[in-house]
Amino acid sequence: MALQQYEYGMIGLGTMGRNLALNIGDHGFSMAGFDKDISKAEALDKEAGPRNLRGFNDLNDFLTSLKRPRTILMLVPAGKAVDSIIEELKSRLSPGDLLADCGNSHYSDTDRRKTCLEKEGIRFMGIGVSGGESGARYGPSIMPGGDEQDYNRVAPMLEAIAAKVETAPCVAWLGPGSAGHYVKMVHNGIEYALMQLIAETYHVLKEAGGLSNRELHSLFARWNKGVLKSFLICISAEIFAHTDELTGKDLIDMIRASARQKGTGMWTSQDAFGLHVPIPSVDMAVTQRDMSAMVEERSIAQGLYSGTNASQLLDKEALIAQVEQALQFSTRVTYAQGTSLLYHASAAYGYGLNLAKVSTLWRGGCIIRAELLEDIRKAYEHKPALPNLLLDKVYADALQGLLPAIRNTVKCAVDAGIPIPATMASLSYYESYRREWLPANLIQAQRDYFGAHTYERTDREGVFHTHWETRSSR
Ligand code: 6PG
User: Fold this and answer.
1) Half-sphere exposure in the Cβ direction for 345 (13 Å, CA)
2) pLDDT confidence bin for 171, thresholds 50/70/90
C-alpha cells in the first residue's frame, strides 16, 4: 500500500475526474484517485503512463495514500452522490484535511456542507470547473470559493492546470462560502442563453434564409474570426459540417430536436427570481429547453395549426448581415444580465465578487469563453461597482449601433412565424432597462384598486390609497 505519498486525492474517476487527474499529473503533481467502480480506478492506472497517478477502489487505502493534511478534490454528480461521499468520509478525515467539491453543486448545498464539515475541523471548498472533457484534460476555467487560506493551499496546482489567456491562468479565488459555485451556476445560466440565441439564429437562417448546413458552417466559421468569436460559435461551425457515420447525411439533421438539461440554468433563473433580478434571456432559454422536450404535444399542435408557418425566403445576404448583428446584441445583453445577477447576489450573499476578475477567468477554458469578455473585463476594471454593463458608455454605444439589426431581425422572425423568444427577451430587456418610465403605474393602480395595496406618487413622499370603485366596476 502507498503510504502518505500523494499530494492530492481525487474522488470520482468518471470522464471529468480522470481527465482532471491526468491534467494534474501532466503538471508534475502526484495524485491518488478513488472510484467505487473498479474499472474506472483501473482506467486511471492504465492512462497514467509516466505521471505520478494511481487509482484506488478501496476508500481506506486511498485515504492512507495521501500526504497529511490531506487535500482531496471531488468530481461526482451533483446532489445525493456528494452527500453520501461526504458521509462516508466524515469519520475518516482528520481536522485540517481539505475537501473541495469541483462538481456543479447547488450553492446552497455548498454552504450547508461547509458549515457541517467545519464543525469537525474539516476544511471545505466549492470549486466551479468549466470546459467539459477537453477543458478538464487540457485547461479548464476554474471558479473557486471558500476560505482564502484554503484556496492558497491549492492555488499553485489550480494555476498550473487552468486554461491560460496569454500567460494569465483562468483561475482566481472569487470569494467566501459558496461564491465559486454561485459564479459557476451563473456561468451555466449564461451558457443556456447563448446556446438558445445561437439556436434561434440557426432557425432564422435555415427557414427564412434557406441556408444549407454547408453555408451555415462557412458562415459560423467566418463569424468565429470576428466580433462573435467564441467557443460556442466555433463548435457550432464544426457541428454543421459533421457527417453522420450511420447514414452519410449531415449529422445535425439526424439529431432529435429535443434538448435535455441537468438543471443549472433553471437554478440560475430560480435564484434570480428570488433576488428580484431580471435575467429574461436565461429564463427563456430554460423555457425553450422545456418546450423542446414536449415533442408529442407539439406534434399534435402542428397538425392543428398547420398552415400557420408563414416562413418565406428573404434576401440571404441582407438577412445574414442583420442576424449577425442581432446575435452580437443579444449576446451582449445576455452577459449583462448574468453579471448583473452576480452583482446583486454578491451583495445579498456577502461574496464580495470582483466582476473584472470573474470576466478575466471566463476568457479561457470555459464554455462561455468569447472575445467579448475582454470588453466586459475592461468595463468592470474601469468601474468595479458597475451594477449593469448597460450603464457602461462603451457597452452602450456598441448596443446602440446594433439596435436597428435586432429590431429588424425580430420583425422578420415574427413575419416568418419563427419563434425567437430569447432574442426577443434580450431586446425587450434592453428596451425596458433603457427607459425611466415603464407602465407599472397602471399596475400599482390596479393593485390598489382591487387589494388596497397602496401606491407611491410622483409628486410627493409617502404611500396613498384611493377609493377607486365606481358603480360600473362593482
Ligand atoms: C461546463 C458545462 C458543464 C455541463 C453543463 C451541461 O461549464 O463545462 O456547463 O458544467 O456541460 O452542466 O448542462 P446541461 O446538461 O444542464 O445542459
Assistant:
1) 33
2) very high
| 191 in catalytic set | yes
Give the distance (Å) from ligand 1 centre to CA of residue 193. 12
Residue 286 in contact with ligand 1 by CB distance below 6 A: no
Q: Considering its fold, how many domains does the chain have in total?
A: 3
Q: Examine the pLDDT at 310 and tell me if it is beyond 70.
A: no
In the DSSP assignment, the letter for residue 67 is P
Q: Is 19 in the pocket of ligand 1 (CB under 6 A)?
A: no
Residue 33 lies in a domain: yes
Asked if residue 448 and residue 416 are part of one domain, the reply reads: no
188 CA distance to ligand 1 middle (Å): 6
> Do residue 133 and residue 211 come from a single domain?
no
Closest ligand 1 atom to the C-alpha of 368? 7
Q: What range does the domain containing 88 cover?
A: 8-177
The string of DSSP codes covering 140-171 is -EEEEES-HHHHHHHHHHHHHHS-EETTEESB
On whether residue 322 sits in a domain, the answer given is: yes
Catalytic option among 47, 67, 80, 184: 184
Residue 341's pLDDT is: 98
CATH of residue 309's domain is: 1.10.1040.10
Q: Is 418 within the bounds of a domain?
A: yes
User: Is 1 a domain residue?
Assistant: no
Nearest Cα to 139, choosing from 121, 165, 117?
165
Confirm or reject: Cβ of 367 under 6 Å from ligand 1. Answer: yes
424 and 455 share one domain: no
Atom index in ligand 1 nearest the CA of residue 195 equals 17
pLDDT at 3 over 90: no
For ligand 1, whether the C-beta of 233 sits within 6 Å is no
Residue 211 and residue 359 share a domain: yes
Q: Is the pLDDT of residue 154 over 70?
A: yes
CA distance 73 to 396: 42
The pTM assigned to this predicted structure is 0.96
Residue 360 Cβ inside 6 Å of ligand 1? The answer reads no
Ligand 1 atom at shortest distance from the alpha carbon of 367 = 7
Q: What are phi and psi of 37, to 5 degrees?
A: -85, 110
Residues 165 and 296 in one domain: no
